[in-house]
What does this fold into?
Amino acid sequence: MKISLSSGRFITDNSLECESGCYFVRTNSNLKFESTARTAGAEIIAPKRALELAGSLSNLKIVGITGTNGKTTTAALTAHILTALGHKCALAGTRGAFVDGEQIAPKGLTTSQFLETLSYMWRAVEAGCEYFIMEVSSHAIAQNRVEGLEFALKIFTNLTQDHLDYHKTFEEYARVKSSFFADETLKLINADDEFIRYSKINAHLYAIEDSNLNNAEFTATEADFSRGITATLNLAGEQIKFNSHLQGKFNLYNILAAAAAVRLLEPNSNLNALARAIESFPGVEGRVQVVSRNPLVIVDFAHTPDGIEKVLSALNHKRLIVVFGAGGDRDRTKRPLMGAAVEKYAHTAIVTSDNPRSEEPSEIANEILSGMKSERTICELDRRKAISLAISLAKEDDIVAILGKGDETTQEIKGAKYHFSDAEVVREILEGK
It folds into this structure.
């Protein structure tokens, strides 16, 4: 990636683009190419220096959100509320990058490489944005992809098993996440999570569990999940009530985190306007997304044992038919746990292929099945056939839940990506195509 400067020089993180007089921003990801860049005549700089050279970012308030689940919805809802309150926002994460509602980059890494993120920030400043809200992955923290960024607020959602293919142990995963909150930056922490560690300087807590309500500044009470979510939010001594069409306790956490974040960032914001903004939030594509109402078919990104548990427990008021798999070349230890989580709630579970990548789908499925005992489990490795089977089995009032890929539009098999969208496949099947 290359960013041109007004001086006529440019910044790059690609040693092949280097030439005499340019700047090469050194990160953990490209460290081994530093000598090549230097030989080409580049001046080697750290990310913080790149930020100084880019200039004019000082007025952009950066909000970083990390956690195993909930990052995407919390980020999108925070941006939605701030926009409703009259503040221009940019958003970067799993779904891509958006500036004032316009998509400027497609889906990619949860947290882009440093220079790419910097380019999004520049676009945000040019568009007059006040806030830049970004999802921050554990990989990005470990690889210093957010090095040099000064955050106006850091938000922690939760911590459950994921990415152990990279971090090796849950303890290391927790340590990496916790390191993001070790400084004195303004931070918002989920007090109901027992695994996070953080500096208590400038830390504010939010909670839903009764045992933590007295310790938290931001809480949710009187919650009813029978028809979406109805609850009372207690925001640092002030209350608002809302009704949202979002589903489940996990989304109440996302709503509470977003509302608390806005109150910390904009303490004089109108509470009634904030409540109405929560109610008008349409949700995020691929996150408990209703694709069909007859039969009721829901697509969701849940791909961890905890994520599956949260989604299915929210839908458990009806008989569930669940289609799911697990990604290849990723944490294998979570596969039987995912199977057990589905079996706990599903009347019928259909194990299928997700993104097998370099692995054999049958081997992935067998590891999932090792955590399942029910006779109501079916293995159909062709994902399209698995979805079709689930729909054919659905009776009146059943819910078909298709988990793992959410709004992804490709399926990765043996190094190639093929077009595949769960939502599109559902619609095609229902239309008889």
Remarks:
- Residues 246 and 390 are 23 Å apart (CA to CA).
